[in-house]
UniProtKB/TrEMBL annotation:
Its main location: plastid. The keyword ATP-binding does not apply. PANTHER family: SOLUTE CARRIER FAMILY 35. It holds the Pfam family TPT. The chain crosses the membrane at residues 105-127, 139-159, 226-245, 251-270, 282-301, 321-338, 359-377, 383-402. This is Sugar phosphate transporter domain-containing protein. Keywords: Chloroplast, Membrane, Plastid, Transit peptide, Transmembrane, Transmembrane helix, Transport. It comes from Centaurea solstitialis. GO terms for cellular component: chloroplast membrane. It is found in: Plastid, Chloroplast membrane. Signal peptide: none annotated. Residues 109-396 form the Sugar phosphate transporter domain. InterPro entries: EmrE-like, Sugar_P_trans_dom, Tpt_PEP_transl, TPT_transporter. The lineage of its organism: Eukaryota, Viridiplantae, Streptophyta, Embryophyta, Tracheophyta.
Length: 429
């Protein structure tokens, strides 16, 4: 680029040649004729003499119409690239690089992400429940879920996909509470899955937005709009209706699902404080490792003696060693993959789409679990489940619209308003 600029520098009494420049361009491009150029007066008021560009006129071999439409800066950039080496300027360099499939069809790619997320989640829930039918040890199964995921992460780090982010004592202190809540919520979900029907557990877990709103209001001190509270009323009513007539109802399954809701709510609270700047894949990997350490002691203390005495023996006698081990491996792999794909999916969409996607996922899981396992549900349970899901949908849509409005309003503020707001925040500590 430097040599190009020196050849094109304006000198009053000396003709300039760019034949050396033209020799580096593709054979399809040539320069001929020379024409004087008379620049206009500069700001200094001095009139420059005529400047000649000697060489040949541009011959494009059918590309005249393309080059004439290109902006000067693009032609200069191509010329600079040619000046930096002996490579020819190819047609793709001038016409622009072709777009990838994801750039041409973003909606199709996002739809594929959603489909993969739902598919993996449904398969996980079905396989997980089938394992509990002959191996009812949710604490140990929870450990297997995390162990397979951690192994997957360690292998990925070893080959650099992704590259492992470093962690220090401060980051460990920030991520540990998140991992503790994740471990408790995960174990309690599995206890509920083992005790009651999958559809019923997911119906109870539809109450999670209620606990989230309550924690935001009374723990974090955030003011929740009245419209959000009203949208949660159908959720509470629907879950109550479904619980009263659910055929698989028992207090262990109900209580475990409720504890899971509370745990995941506090996980969200602590996650807001865990803004480490680390990418989501590495954060989830570290959380999985720490959560695994939390899950090991209760699995050993609560289920260890039973497993050693007759748990493993009974399961192998029912399905065989190969199927037993493969089932445990695949439920762990599907658990990790659906969480990973869910993170990748939700990073691609707006909050409103995120909200709708989460609700539809729960509908898919409940529907498929009823079909696969043939669970009989009463009419009241079906109506209550539908009301609860509709309430979650309304809540999610209202919340997403409020968040989008806040984002737009903040983006429309001028710099002085933003600066004054930041000053007030700092003054208030």
């Amino acid at each position: 680029m430097a040599s190009l600029m020196s050849n094109l520098s304006i000198r009053p009494s000396k003709s300039l040649t760019i034949s050396s420049f033209s020799s580096r361009i593709s054979p399809t491009l040539g320069l001929r004729t020379s024409q004087p150029v008379y620049p206009s007066k500069l700001n200094s008021g001095k009139q420059l003499k005529a400047v000649e560009f000697s060489g040949e006129k541009l011959r494009c071999s059918g590309w005249n119409h393309l080059l004439l439409r290109r902006r000067p800066v693009e032609i200069i950039a191509a010329a600079a690239a040619a000046d930096g080496g002996d490579r020819e300027i190819e047609g793709s360099a001038i016409s622009g690089a072709p777009k990838s499939f994801a750039e041409r069809y973003p909606a199709l790619v996002t739809g594929f992400f959603f489909f993969t997320w739902y598919f993996l989640n449904v398969i996980f829930n079905i396989l997980n429940k089938k394992v509990y039918n002959y191996f009812p040890y949710p604490y140990f199964v929870s450990v297997v879920h995390l162990l397979v995921g951690v192994t997957y992460c360690l292998i990925s780090w070893s080959i650099g996909l992704p590259k492992r982010a470093p962690i220090n004592k401060d980051l460990l202190g920030v991520l540990t509470p998140v991992a503790a809540c994740h471990a408790l919520g995960h174990v309690m979900s599995n206890v509920s899955f083992a005790a009651v029907a999958v559809s019923f557990t997911h119906t109870i877990k539809a109450l999670e937005p209620f606990f989230s709103a309550a924690a935001s209001q009374f723990v974090l001190g955030q003011q929740i709009p009245f419209s959000l509270w009203m949208s949660l009323a159908p959720v509470v009513i629907g879950v109550s209706m479904a619980s009263l007539t659910e055929l698989s109802f028992n207090w262990l399954g109900f209580t475990s699902a409720m504890i899971s809701n509370i745990s995941f709510t506090y996980r969200s609270i602590y996650s807001k404080k865990a803004m480490t700047g680390m990418d989501s894949t590495n954060v989830y990997a570290y959380i999985s490792i720490i959560a695994l350490l939390f899950c090991l002691p209760p699995a050993i203390l609560i289920e260890g003696p039973k497993l050693m005495q007759y748990g493993f023996k009974d399961a192998i006698a029912k399905v065989g060693m190969v199927k037993f081990v493969s089932d445990l491996f695949w439920i762990g792999m599907f658990y990790h993959l659906y969480n990973q794909v869910a993170t990748n999916t939700l990073e691609r969409v707006a909050p409103l789409t995120h909200a709708v996607g989460n609700v539809l996922k729960r509908v898919f899981v409940i529907g498929f679990s009823i079909i696969v396992f043939g669970n009989r549900i009463s009419t009241q349970t079906g109506i209550g489940t539908a009301i609860a899901i509709a309430g979650v949908a309304i809540y999610s849509l209202i919340k997403a619209n409020l968040e989008e409005k806040k984002r737009v309003d903040f983006g429309n503020l001028d710099q002085s308003t933003i600066f004054a707001t930041l000053i007030r925040w700092m003054a208030n500590g």
